[in-house]
């Protein structure tokens, strides 16, 4: 289970970090050779890592011309959060049901790391700790495939610019937004954990949508009038949830569908 990361995995982690920190800019083209030099490795692991980056949607490879970091569109952000809502709330419930003493301690430690970063107003560390907190929870849910899927979803959203995320709320507010999730896990309450996670992910998505929508208007994007408004996007955000079907039809009973 714990084997040392391959060279390709190490390069992939470095590439992701460079995108998330803004060192590699969305929209700019980079050559595999240049990246190999930057990371001090040969081109083969760089090429393999770039393929993986493209697969996750963070980059586009143009044959023989290099790689471009793809900035996430507002629609994509909404799509990602639709999925996070659907996946992460039940995962939190599962984590609360599964968590033994060690797992609870692990989640507490991640929360503590968030708190310390917030106290130091260290935004980059705070966002990393935020991500670790979520990862620790999903790890307790015992679905390795889900760990990977959620990681991709988070990375995709973060390519819009990591440093600006907390601008809409203070560091302390960001930490507090996780407290009821922690408490639900500590008390082993799956329902409360799901509700708390759902509230947190939804809250984060709404803040991000409003900020990005305003940003696009302000930047004078000529296509801005064609974008759906923030309200429309917020409604779309919830459209994947089962409850949106049960309230529409008044009943959840449908024939099981193969799928
Ligand atoms: Zn969070």
From TrEMBL:
Q: Which UniProt keywords apply?
A: DNA-binding, Transcription, Transcription regulation
Q: What is the protein name given in its UniProt record?
A: GntR family transcriptional regulator
Instruction: State the InterPro entries in the record.
Output: GntR_C (IPR011711), TF_FadR/GntR_C (IPR008920), Tscrpt_reg_HTH_GntR (IPR000524), WH-like_DNA-bd_sf (IPR036388), WH_DNA-bd_sf (IPR036390)
Annotated GO MF terms: DNA binding; DNA-binding transcription factor activity
Q: Where is the HTH gntR-type domain?
A: 5-72
- Taxonomic superkingdom: Bacteria
PANTHER family, from UniProt?
GLUCONATE OPERON TRANSCRIPTIONAL REPRESSOR, TRANSCRIPTIONAL REGULATOR, GNTR FAMILY
Cited CDD domains:
WHTH_GntR
């Amino acid at each position: 289970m714990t084997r040392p990361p391959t060279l390709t995995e190490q390069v992939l982690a470095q590439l992701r970090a460079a995108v998330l920190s803004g060192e590699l800019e969305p929209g700019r083209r980079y050559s595999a050779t240049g990246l190999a030099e930057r990371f001090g490795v040969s081109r083969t692991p760089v090429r393999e890592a770039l393929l993986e980056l493209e697969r996750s949607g963070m980059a586009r490879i143009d044959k023989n011309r290099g790689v471009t970091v793809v900035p996430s569109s507002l629609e994509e952000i909404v799509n990602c959060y639709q999925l996070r809502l659907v996946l992460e709330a039940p995962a939190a419930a599962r984590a609360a049901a599964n968590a033994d003493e060690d797992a609870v301690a692990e989640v507490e430690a991640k929360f503590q790391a968030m708190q310390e970063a917030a106290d130091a107003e260290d935004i980059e560390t705070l966002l990393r700790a935020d991500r670790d907190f979520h990862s620790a929870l999903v790890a307790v849910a015992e679905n390795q495939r889900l760990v990977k899927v959620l990681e991709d979803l988070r990375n995709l959203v973060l390519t819009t610019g990591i440093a600006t995320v907390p601008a809409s709320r203070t560091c302390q507010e960001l930490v507090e937004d996780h407290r009821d999730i922690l408490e639900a896990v500590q008390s082993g309450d799956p329902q409360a954990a799901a509700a708390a996670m759902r509230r947190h992910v939804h809250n984060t998505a709404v803040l991000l949508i409003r900020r990005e929508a305003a940003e696009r208007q302000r930047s004078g994007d000529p296509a801005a009038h064609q974008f759906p408004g923030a309200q429309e996007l917020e409604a779309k955000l919830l459209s994947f949830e089962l409850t949106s079907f049960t309230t529409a039809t008044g009943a959840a009973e449908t024939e099981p569908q193969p799928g």
